[in-house]
Amino acid sequence: MKNYHIKSMKQVFIVDDLPKTGFELSLKATDEELEMLKDQLSIQNVESFSAKLTIKQWRRGGVQIEGTYEAAITQECVVTLETFDSVVKEEINQKFFSTTKLPELNDKKEGEMLDNDLDPPDALNDGKLNISDYLVETLLLQLDPYPRKPGSDFEDLATNGKFQINQPTVDDGNSNESDDPNKIKKSNATHKPFAGLEKLLKDK
After folding, report:
1. Which of 11, 71, 103, 157 could form a disulfide with 162 if both were Cys (CB 3.0 to 4.6 A apart)?
2. How far is residue 89's CA from residue 19's CA, in Å, rounded to a whole number?
3. pTM value surpassing 0.85
4. pLDDT, position 69
């Protein structure tokens, strides 16, 4: 099985030109590609990204990707707003089918084989496999949309006094108004909005 080391994640493969026995693919993102990944993922930084994949033809005009990727990233914690580093590792086993070579409706055997796949295959665009698009989408699905720095917790922050939730307080009549000028006092007003209406009814 051949082994390819490509210099660009933007490599696009024509599925029909792939070796039927498959080939090994190793890639490592360049500085420019790391910057691109950071923007696409909307995170603070991508320190490194690498992948080792096996790519081979699958059924009629399709392709299968197996392997692993690893990314060292920096995100912002939604609790503390501090940045933190983490490593994302994922195993890949995904199949793609060609939209130009879909099984015929009367091909019962091929249809059943597709239905029995645990991971439904994705569609290829014009018989081409874009490695970069697939890997970025796969990594994006693994990221927590509300990342938290390890050890951070809302309750702990409140207990430690790092933030407070301001709530109005009610005067119980035992405190002096000068004690806390920002304190919301309970109103002792005796205004009755319908007092005038009651007087008019009595005069009739």
Report:
1. 157
2. 27
3. no
4. 96
